[in-house]
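Protocol step 4 of 6: structure prediction from sequence.
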Amino acid sequence: MKHKKLLLPTPIHLLSLKNFKKHLIICLGICLFCSTTVQAQFGGFGKAILGKGADMVSGGSLNKLLKQPQAITTSFNDVNKTGSKPPSFMEGQVAEPLYLLPKAPGGGFKLCAGFYEMTSKSYCLHAGTRGPSTGDGYMLAPVLGPKRDVVILILKHAETHPEVDQHSIQILLWSIIARTRFVDMGSDIKLTATRLLSANELLMLEGGALGVLPASVMDKAKSQFPPAVQSVFEAENNIRRLAASGNSSYEEMEKYAMLAGLAPAPDPAVPSGIWSLHPDGYYIRFYPHSYSKTTVQIYVPKELLSTKPGLVYDGPNGIACPANVGSQRLAQTNEPLNPDYNQKLKTICNQ
């Protein structure tokens, strides 16, 4: 019977100087990796988080902190008002269920000529602001900012993960909007992220993130912001702290994400129910019921499809943006709430 030759490590005294150096470097690398991993997982967690924030003001880097863009930068200045229609447009017409239209392979719904609506899940993308209020006008805006791609991916992947509830996704989005580092997020938030994102997509969460900023840094930073921006900056820091704590509830995080009290008066130039002209040529408007629930209406002119066949409405690619700067930006989805699939489309749709 043949015995396999057992390979033993070469004794150090038999190694050449060159090989000895090579082995030493490898051993030191392994030790350093293990030490770093253990420290990151078990040691000095709170100190590390606050230390990252304290570093932001050392060496004059407070200015760098103040210049960092928000995770999602979309504002009403990004809204294209060209071609908009008043709320009376399509008055008296009855909308059909948008969710009954054929599904597009890449997500969303294939559009046919006609008037459609869907009440669907929506998400807050602006911490430290107020929820929708009566009279607020919302218009279509693009998703912009450093975290644009990962936010859209989360919303699109959520369609195929019904086991991940809306509250868990909102907590993840608030953590991202607040620029929380993935390594700092609590285990529940990380679990939500890993369910919705691939390993490569998870890497998109890291860039541009911050640690929890101590009070001294917050005071210095806030003094350089106007009041409206101060509330957002403070809300984001509180959300980072809660996200890192690992035991915060949805209600606690919502308390910082949503401001209490009366919202500023609506902008009369942008009334509730105003229609936006989508870049693809159809019309769209939003009626938010709350930050987590929005009715979207779409009108597709018949003549449009003759020049632009194959149109698709894909909710996560747009934001319902308020003219009122103190209100929430609302991410849209393709997920209808309480759909009735027993209904039938009256419109003939050959998509």
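Step 5 (inspection) to follow. Residues 17-42 form the longest helix (26 residues).
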